[in-house]
């Protein structure tokens, strides 16, 4: 009868072994369910919309005129509000975003600040509100369809309209508002909407947004989303259909949300022909309004007016840009069964960079985002050049990136310009289509978009080193002062490091999920499922978290809890590595021929300092197993075969610590004495029984020269120096990294 191995220390080591000390359990792998809203008939436990999901709709008919003489807006709108909820509504809430610039606004009242011994006049004017500017909406009338005044109350950036009678489920209500406001000069009061004055030719360029009273969201999650607009948290808006007429000087070129409905009435014959040609130009842009034409318009400055009409269906907002300085180009893009136009509007001050790069960047963004989410559904996607801008609206965005006066530009200018266009065009998908609440959970907008932006940049711009969203680029922030950090799951107005967190940290988290934790195939399927489920709807964080797990079969609760709900950091370390080789028994007739070569063993045994591999391996023995180990089993294993599996193998017991609090996968790079390398990836669940320390045994054919964890900087580890064994002196660490990367 064969005797079976009595697996002593070796077998324990060959499984995952845990440190002797047991730290306080922090529940990092406890399920997130109890912290998320309870699933219901509106939002299911899978993360999909429930069978009774509903959302409101708001349709707009707007007429607006821009006054180029005094830089002001005047307009009137009729809103038809559809109550698709199961609730009876007695009042409506609208957003008055321009009131952020009104006298006595809450943003200015609540803004902190300090004095320095020296400050430039421009900064002082903006910081201390020293510029004379009469901002904010001037509401002229609020009436029902019969022309009767409706009672309303303005609370900073919110306006409540009391209804003459309750609006029941399934009903709709129409009312009108007349308003006006002064447009801010971007060089004095920088906002998402502004004008720029060009003293060289005496003309203006306008990017107009948040320009009309807009309905707030009313949803199943919190009722009215009427949190004040303080400037950092952006917008939550319902979908609807828009019909907009924009009256501007007759020599202006207008770009706007939606489809131009009267091109024959506002374009010259030559421009109309070029516009038609652009609709089938897939290889390169067609210039519809040329630079030569723009320069001529700058000189003439006609006083006549024209009205441009645009229609947009199923959008959550509307914005436009207008100037006599605009050059306009367009190119058709093949997206599924549709051919939207990628378009750019820019003054001559943007060339040659904008003619070369802008529409190409729009096209690249549409193609990659469509692959990752849903096919772009709208007829146009527009990039408008505006100084120091980076802001998005449905089908149109405003972007910075201006060459020097002589037309030259640096690689950094090109990088910034391409990056901001891809990012802002990408916002068409997040949040303009997958319509999350930016004011409450900014990361669902900025962070998710930053991630897909990085995927686009890596694929389409290999010549540019884009880094926002890559783990290594986030490390300086992660190593920073915890007192200025906020978890991602906080309201946007409480965030101190807005760009580092809501953009970069959130984007980096998704990048790590795709590249390191889930893998591209699983992540992409789950991410696309989320986009398809929530396109033209209002998702919440729980819907995203649940969908990503539902569609991938990957338990990510540990990741959501650590990365989104805390400010913990990643700091893994290699504490100790022990090297072993098997020693055979001289007295066992079945193993006497399986001797390890003399010299491979440390015959003396005993205590050893495990700080390098210089002392050689420690011996260990496999002995035959007492038959009682088999209990009721009648069969036994082949002792000799097991021993042969370990003959001449190098066995390494590695002890790792998690010092930073965030659990992450362990990525180990083995460098062997023959110079070859191997990367081994261990899921984060290795920390599930002990969240701070773990010991694991690895069996290797070759002798190891060094071990590095997170060799490719994939998990934002804040201290790479303790990721190395044998330890490397601080003065030589940079040289070691360079050699091993």
Shape: elongated
Helix content percent band? 10-25%
Number of domains: 3
Beginning-to-end CA distance, first to last residue: 53 Å
Descriptive terms for the model:
single chain, 33 strands, 3 domains, 6-stranded mixed beta sheet, elongated, disordered N terminus, 741 residues, alpha+beta
Structural write-up:
With 741 residues, the chain is α+β, with helices and mostly antiparallel strands. It folds into 3 domains: 4-26 and 571-740, no CATH class; 57-238, Sandwich (Immunoglobulin-like); 250-305 and 315-404, no CATH class. Helices cover 23% and strands 27% of the residues. It is built from 16 helices and 33 strands. Strand 6 (152-155) and strand 7 (158-167) form a beta hairpin. Helix 7 crosses helix 8. Pfam families: Peptidase_M1 (PF01433). This is Peptidase M1 membrane alanine aminopeptidase domain-containing protein. Residues 372-563 form the Peptidase M1 membrane alanine aminopeptidase domain. It comes from Ohtaekwangia koreensis.
């Amino acid at each position: 009868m064969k005797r079976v191995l009595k697996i002593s220390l070796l077998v324990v080591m060959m499984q995952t072994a845990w440190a002797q000390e047991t730290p306080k359990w922090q529940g990092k792998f406890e399920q997130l369910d109890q912290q998320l809203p309870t699933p219901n008939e509106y939002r299911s436990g899978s993360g999909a919309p429930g069978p009774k999901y509903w959302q409101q709709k708001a349709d707009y008919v707007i007429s607006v005129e821009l006054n180029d003489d005094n830089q002001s807006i005047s307009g009137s709108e009729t809103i038809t509000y559809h109550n698709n909820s199961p609730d009876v509504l007695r009042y409506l809430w609208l957003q008055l975003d321009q009131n952020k610039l009104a006298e006595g606004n809450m943003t200015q009242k609540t803004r902190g600040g300090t004095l320095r011994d020296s400050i430039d006049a421009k900064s002082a004017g903006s910081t201390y509100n020293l510029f004379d500017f009469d901002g904010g909406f001037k509401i002229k009338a609020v009436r029902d369809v019969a022309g009767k005044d409706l009672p309303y109350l303005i609370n900073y950036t919110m306006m409540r309209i009391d209804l003459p009678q309750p609006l029941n489920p399934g009903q709709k209500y129409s009312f009108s508002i007349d308003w006006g406001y002064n447009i801010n000069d971007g060089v004095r009061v920088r906002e998402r909407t502004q004008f720029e004055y060009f003293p060289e030719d005496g003309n203006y360029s306008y990017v107009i947004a948040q320009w009309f009273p807009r309905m707030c969201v009313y949803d199943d999650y919190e009722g009215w989303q009427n949190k004040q607009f303080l400037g950092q948290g952006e917008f939550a808006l319902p979908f609807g259909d828009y019909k907009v007429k924009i009256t501007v000087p007759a020599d202006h070129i207008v770009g706007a949300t939606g489809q131009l409905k009267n091109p024959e009435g506002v374009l010259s014959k030559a421009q109309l022909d070029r516009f038609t040609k652009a609709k089938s130009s897939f290889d390169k842009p067609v210039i519809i309004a040329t630079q030569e034409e723009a320069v001529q318009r700058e000189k003439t400055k006609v006083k006549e007016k024209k009205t441009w009409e645009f229609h947009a269906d199923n959008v959550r907002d509307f914005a436009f840009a207008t100037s006599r300085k605009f050059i306009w180009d367009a190119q058709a893009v093949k997206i599924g069964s549709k051919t939207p136009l990628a378009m750019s509007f820019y003054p001559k001050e943007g060339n040659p960079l904008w003619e070369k790069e802008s529409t190409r960047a729009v096209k690249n963004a549409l193609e990659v985002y469509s692959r990752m989410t849903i096919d772009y559904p709208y007829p146009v996607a527009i990039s408008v050049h505006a100084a120091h801008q980076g802001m998005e609206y449905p089908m149109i965005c405003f972007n910075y990136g201006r060459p020097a006066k002589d037309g030259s530009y640096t690689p950094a200018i090109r990088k910034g310009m391409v990056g901001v266009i891809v990012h802002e065009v990408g916002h068409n998908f997040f949040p303009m289509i997958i319509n999350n609440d930016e004011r409450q959970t900014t990361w669902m907008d900025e962070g998710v978009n930053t991630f897909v932006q990085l995927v686009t940049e890596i694929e389409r711009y290999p010549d540019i080193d884009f880094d926002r969203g890559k783990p290594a680029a986030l490390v300086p922030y992660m190593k920073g002062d915890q007192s200025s950090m906020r978890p991602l799951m906080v309201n946007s107005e409480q965030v101190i490091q807005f760009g580092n967190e809501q953009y970069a940290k959130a984007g980096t988290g998704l990048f790590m999920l795709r590249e390191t934790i889930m893998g591209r195939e699983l992540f992409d399927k789950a991410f696309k499922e989320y986009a398809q489920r929530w396109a033209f709807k209002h998702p919440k964080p729980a819907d995203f978290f649940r969908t990503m797990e539902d569609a991938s079969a990957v338990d990510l609760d540990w990741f959501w809890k650590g990365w989104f709900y805390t400010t913990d950091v990643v700091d893994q370390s290699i504490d100790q590595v022990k090297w072993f080789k098997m020693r055979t028994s001289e007295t066992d007739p079945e193993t006497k021929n399986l001797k390890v070569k003399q010299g491979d063993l440390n015959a003396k045994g005993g205590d050893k300092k495990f700080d390098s591999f210089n002392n050689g391996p420690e011996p260990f023995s496999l002995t035959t197993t007492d038959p009682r180990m088999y209990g009721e089993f009648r069969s036994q294993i082949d002792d000799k075969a097991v021993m042969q599996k370990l003959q001449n193998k190098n066995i390494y017991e590695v002890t790792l610590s998690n010092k930073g609090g965030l659990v992450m996968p362990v990525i180990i790079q083995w460098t062997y004495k023959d110079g070859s390398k191997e990367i081994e990836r261990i899921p984060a669940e290795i920390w599930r029984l002990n969240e701070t320390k773990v010991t694991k045994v690895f069996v290797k054919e070759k002798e190891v020269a060094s071990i590095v964890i997170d060799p490719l900087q994939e998990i934002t580890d804040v201290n790479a120096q303790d990721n190395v064994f044998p330890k490397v002196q601080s003065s030589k660490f940079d040289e070691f990294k360079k050699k091993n990367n």
